[in-house]
Design a protein that fits this description.
Elements: H1 9-17, H2 20-29, E1 34-35, H3 36-43, H4 48-60, E2 64-69, E3 75-80, H5 82-85, H6 88-105
Antiparallel strand pairs: 1-3, 2-3
Length: 106
């Protein structure tokens, strides 16, 4: 069954990255593959439950892949997909805008 997407492209984008944590996860994964603990540390003040929920949602949306290694303790790595990497220009624009706003506000 195919998921019904909104007609508005902006709404589709917001549906995928509207959570602040998702944007920060994408920001960190743009640098390359990361393990769960690395993401938890780099994203900031996020609970394990919220990080797990966001990663699962992003995996379902096709923004990242999750690779589990059969080790004890289990090792899990997250990597952006091509679709996830395609969000880089959006994040770059957010960085540029945020930098200009910060300069004007100070």
């Amino acid at each position: 069954m195919t998921k019904e997407l909104p007609a508005c492209p902006v709404e589709i984008t917001l549906m995928l990255i509207s959570d602040r944590w998702k944007v920060l996860i994408i920001r960190d994964l743009l640098e390359g593959t990361k393990r769960f603990g690395e993401l938890k540390k780099s994203v900031g003040n996020i609970s394990q439950k919220v990080l797990t929920a966001n990663l699962r949602s992003m995996e379902e949306a096709g923004l990242l892949t999750r690779k589990v290694y059969p080790e004890v303790p289990p090792r899990v790595e997250y990597t952006l997909t091509e679709t996830g990497y395609s969000l880089k220009p959006i994040l770059d624009a957010m960085v540029a805008w945020g930098t200009k706003y910060k300069e004007k506000s100070v």
